[in-house]
């Protein structure tokens, strides 16, 4: 399997806290059947300002360490960018780290509780430069989780969607699990990744979530989410989005039903 979203580089963000933890994460990934991992440290202005050079240096160091330790896990460079209005300008200046430094796919994270008004425009301007945005864990965004049609809109306009394994297995809460399953049933998911942050709770594992996904979309498509499509992304090849099935719908949570009742 290929994991295209992980925080395995040590001491760059809220992921691996030390080189030792990076090694433990690498061993866990290999034991789970992951053979390639894209390191995607957070880049958030004023919080985690990891540059391309910083990421490339950290990846080279970790690759060497894994080779020295005999851990058969290939590490590729990447980053997870918080959606900010100036992403297209930073891309134009050559400042952004695309997946595998291929200049084709950019992993973009929305804030947890809203979809900024500039989202569509930023995605459009990235695509004008030949870069496809990959929306990191849309199931964990409160707006997209409640209104899948907003995710459909972004995907129909060229974005891809990556859901997190721990959302599918339920480890990240009921709402994320419900939304992840809805998106899977609707054919609106293109990638399944670990978004691993450490070696104890948010671990670099995908096998269990791939099996859960297979119950919803079948083995072939579940495998595509962790092998075929990630391989295309790291090779800078096209990922075909497929048709979104509008008919499937997410049953509203108790909180949503109460909200609807009181807002009548
Ligand atoms: Fe992440």
List keywords for this structure.
264 residues, alpha/beta, TIM Barrel, 6-stranded parallel beta sheet, 3-stranded parallel beta sheet, 9 strands, 14% strand, binds fe (ii) ion
3D architecture notes:
The protein is of the alpha/beta class. It has a single domain, classed as TIM Barrel, CATH 3.20.20.140. The protein is about 45% helix and about 15% strand. The protein is built from eleven helices and nine strands. The structure holds fe (ii) ion. Fe (ii) ion (FE2) binds next to loops.
Strand segment count: 9
The low-pLDDT segments are none
Widest β-sheet, arrangement of strands? 3-5-6-7-8-9
CATH superfamily: Metal-dependent hydrolases
Return the average pLDDT rounded to an integer. 94
Order of helices and strands: EHEEHEEHEHEHHEHHEHHH
Q: Please give the largest β-sheet.
A: 6 strands, parallel
Structural class: alpha/beta
Beta-strand portion reads: 5-15%
Q: What is the CATH-assigned architecture? A: Alpha-Beta Barrel
Distinct ligands: fe (ii) ion
Question: Roughly what percent helix?
Answer: 40-55%
Continuous helix count? 11
**How many discrete structural domains?**
1
Principal-axis shape: globular
**Which radius of gyration do the C-alpha atoms yield?**
18 Å
According to CATH, what is the topology?
TIM Barrel
CATH class: Alpha Beta
Distance between the termini: 47 Å
């Amino acid at each position: 399997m290929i994991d295209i979203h992980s925080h395995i580089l040590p001491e760059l963000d809220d992921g691996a806290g030390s080189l030792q933890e990076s090694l433990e994460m690498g061993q866990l990934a290999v034991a789970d059947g992951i053979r390639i991992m894209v390191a995607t440290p957070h880049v958030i202005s004023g919080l985690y300002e990891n540059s391309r050079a910083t990421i490339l240096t950290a990846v080279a160091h970790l690759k060497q360490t894994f080779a020295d330790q005999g851990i058969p896990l290939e590490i590729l460079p990447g980053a997870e960018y918080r959606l900010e209005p100036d992403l297209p300008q930073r891309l134009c200046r050559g400042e952004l780290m695309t997946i595998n430094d291929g200049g084709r796919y950019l992993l973009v994270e929305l804030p947890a509780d809203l979809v900024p008004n500039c989202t569509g425009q930023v995605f459009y301007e990235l695509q004008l430069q030949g870069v496809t945005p990959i929306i990191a864990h849309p199931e964990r965004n409160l707006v997209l989780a409640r209104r899948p049609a907003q995710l459909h809109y972004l995907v129909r306009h060229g974005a891809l969607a990556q859901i997190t394994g721990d959302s599918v297995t339920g480890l990240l809460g009921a709402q994320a699990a419900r939304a992840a399953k809805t998106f899977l049933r609707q054919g609106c998911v293109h990638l399944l990744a670990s978004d691993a942050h450490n070696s104890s709770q948010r671990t670099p594992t995908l096998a269990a979530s791939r099996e859960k996904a297979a119950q919803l979309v079948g083995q072939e498509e579940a495998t595509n989410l962790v092998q075929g499509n990630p391989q295309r992304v790291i090779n800078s090849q096209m990922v075909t989005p497929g048709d979104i099935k509008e008919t499937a719908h997410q049953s509203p949570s108790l909180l949503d039903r109460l909200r609807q009742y009181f807002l009548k």
